[in-house]
Specification:
Layout (H helix, E strand, L loop, with lengths): L1 E4 L5 E7 L7 H12 L3 E7 L5 H10 L4 E4 L4 H7 L2 E2 L1 H6 L4 E5 L2 E5 L2 H12 L8 E5 L3 H12 L4 E5 L3 H14 L5 E4 L9 E6 L17 E9 L7 H8 L3 E3 L2 H16 L6 H9 L1
Parallel strand pairs: 2-3, 2-4, 5-7, 8-9, 8-11, 9-10, 11-12, 12-13
Antiparallel strand pairs: 1-3, 4-6, 6-7
Helix pairs in contact: 1-9, 5-6, 5-9
The chain binds NADPH dihydro-nicotinamide-adenine-dinucleotide phosphate (NDP).
The site of NADPH dihydro-nicotinamide-adenine-dinucleotide phosphate (NDP) has 26 residues, from helix 6 and helix 9.
Length: about 280
């Protein structure tokens, strides 16, 4: 464990993952705490792959007040929660746990993080837009309901494995039966055009090129890759097609801000923290 934060009577939080050493969350939460004058300590905790529940119970016994959960424990956190928010239920995954006398509440702040980054930071409204979400893994599940709640004209979910997209579509339609939500595999995108294209696949990690028709990007469209820290082939494809391109660093900071708000009841300013991460 490493430690960042204040001294004296502190409230304690952590991010749990495996691996976790790469996580920027302690830097982000330390910046939020300094900015809002909250006396907290936020650590990285490496849990054994088969030891998520034991690790969380241990932290609870030590008096921690909440944790963020990252790969590969978001589903374990979902199962561990006594109470789930609607957005956690729709996601089938939890990235924020809050501990109280009433038990453990599981939430998912990834979606609101993405929505805030697109609408507030990038200044692009989702309302009445044609939106394409690529991927049907943990990240896509977390953002689908919050995106739909912003009332795009329609949202298409495209994934390499069609069955996974269909399963996610059904899961979300249970929460929001009136949603305009279609799904397809990548070949089904021929002839379609979108105002906002969001890449929630992990293809960029392995330098794979997604088989996207270059015609999917409308003039003045936004191409948003949830990955950050590198130029992905998706970003290159989108740039070559004339789209405006954004990475997922703002989403990372915004999902952390939502978790901070859930725990502390204070909403930190995100712009200076995004700037800090981009320049450090
Ligand atoms: P998962 O492993 O849960 O899902 C991976 C998804 O990518 C699946 O839909 C999979 O398709 C698809 N995929 C993987 N490789 C390829 C490929 N070569 N071609 C086409 N599709 C592919 O990963 P996550 O959902 O957890 O993460 C996805 C990305 O989102 C990662 O890059 C992660 O870093 C990022 N992320 C960013 C966050 C942020 O705050 N900015 C927050 C969370 C995630 P299939 O189902 O067919 O296998």
């Amino acid at each position: 464990m490493d430690q960042l934060g204040g001294v004296g009577s502190v409230d304690r939080y952590a991010v749990i993952g495996h691996p976790v050493a790469h996580s920027q969350s302690p830097i982000i939460h330390a910046a939020f705490a300094k900015q809002t004058q909250q006396n907290i300590r936020y650590e990285r905790v490496l849990a054994p792959l088969d030891g998520f529940v034991e690790t969380v119970r241990d932290l609870m016994q030590q008096g921690y007040q909440g944790v963020n959960v990252t790969v590969p424990f978001k589903f374990s956190a979902f199962q561990f929660s006594d109470h789930l928010t609607a957005r956690a239920k729709a996601a089938g995954a939890v990235n924020t746990l809050s501990f109280s006398a009433n038990g453990v509440t599981g939430d998912n702040t990834d979606g609101v993080g993405l929505v805030h980054d697109i609408q507030k930071n990038l200044g692009v409204s989702l309302k009445q837009k044609r939106v394409l979400l690529l991927g049907a893994g943990g990240a896509a599940s977390g953002v689908l309901l919050p995106l739909l709640l912003e009332q795009p004209s329609h949202l298409t979910l495209a994934n390499r494995s069609l069955e996974k997209a269909q399963a996610l579509q059904q899961q979300v339609l249970q929460q929001l039966p009136t949603a305009h939500l279609a799904c397809c595999d990548f070949s089904g995108l021929q002839g379609m055009v979108f105002d906002i294209v969001i890449n929630a696949t992990s293809a960029g990690l392995g330098h794979s090129v997604l088989p996207l028709p270059s015609t999917i990007f409308a003039p003045q469209s936004l191409a948003y890759d949830m990955m950050y820290g590198k130029e992905t082939s998706f970003m290159q494809q989108a740039r070559a097609s004339g789209a405006r391109v954004a990475d997922g660093l703002g989403m990372l900071v915004e999902q952390a801000a939502e978790a901070f708000f859930l725990w502390r009841g204070v909403r930190p300013e995100t712009a200076p923290v995004i700037h800090l991460l981009r320049t450090s």
